């Protein structure tokens, strides 16, 4: 699946943005982020910003947010969507997670959204070293008393949380056991407008089995469990 996701991020950013726009219709993620760290007036960073869904959420409450992603095509869509909000407290830039172009102790909260987990599949032999470097960068740019927040999937199509792969299970256990992160989970279900839309917006990303199941069951609601890990520094 290494090339699968990289291809989507490089070539299907618009379709991806339409898909994530259907996730978390009840706003559970925004509420959870605010419970973990009071976002009012904060300066924030969104790593793996993609097409800017979390960046947009943050922009409505923080003083400033900067979204970083390695895929220029994703950030191009993010820019279009952020400009529509009328907010002017955001910025976007291309960057790798392990090399954040910010000064030490310069922000209050850093969020990574569905980005670090890819390293487990992309770098199976040394993902701990690579993700460890990403965590170190997060800690470097956060002021004392700031918060690191990690968002990753705990199962698409599931109503209760479970890591979807053995590799992600190892990652999450490593975060909780060795890296000192606290953990909770929330539901961030997808709500599609029609079965046809559910088919279109899930097949390209999640694959034929899941999309076929939605169509067969005439289903427009796709359960999603999202894990949240956080640590104050």
Automatic annotation (TrEMBL):
InterPro entries: Methyltransf_11, Methyltransf_Superfamily, SAM-dependent_MTases_sf
UniProt entry tagged with the keyword Chloroplast: no
Gene3D superfamilies: Vaccinia Virus protein VP39 (3.40.50.150)
Methyltransferase type domain segment(s): 45-150
One Pfam family from the record: Methyltransf_11
Biological processes per GO annotation: methylation
GO molecular function: S-adenosylmethionine-dependent methyltransferase activity
Keywords: Methyltransferase, Transferase
Name of this chain's protein: Class I SAM-dependent methyltransferase
Originating species: Phototrophicus methaneseepsis
């Amino acid at each position: 699946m290494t090339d699968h996701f990289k291809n989507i991020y490089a070539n299907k950013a618009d379709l991806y943005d339409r898909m994530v726009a259907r996730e978390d219709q009840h706003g559970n993620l925004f509420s959870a982020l605010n419970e973990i760290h009071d976002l009012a007036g904060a300066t924030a960073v969104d790593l793996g910003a993609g097409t800017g869904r979390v960046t947009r959420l943050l922009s409505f409450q923080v003083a400033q947010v900067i979204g970083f992603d390695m895929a220029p095509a994703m950030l191009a869509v993010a820019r279009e969507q952020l400009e529509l909000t009328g907010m002017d407290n955001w910025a976007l830039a291309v960057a790798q997670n392990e090399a954040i172009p910010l000064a030490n102790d310069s922000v209050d909260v850093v969020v990574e959204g569905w980005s670090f987990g890819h390293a487990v599949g992309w770098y199976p032999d040394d993902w701990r070293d690579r993700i460890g470097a990403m965590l170190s960068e997060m800690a470097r740019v956060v002021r004392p008393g700031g918060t690191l927040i990690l968002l990753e999937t705990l199962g698409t199509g599931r109503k209760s949380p479970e890591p979807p792969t053995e590799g992600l299970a190892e990652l999450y256990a490593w975060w909780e056991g060795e890296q000192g992160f606290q953990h909770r989970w929330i539901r961030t279900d997808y709500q599609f407008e029609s079965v046809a839309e559910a088919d279109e917006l899930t097949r390209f990303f999640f694959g034929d089995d899941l999309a076929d199941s939605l169509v067969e069951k005439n289903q427009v609601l796709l359960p999603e469990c999202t894990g949240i890990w956080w640590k104050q520094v």
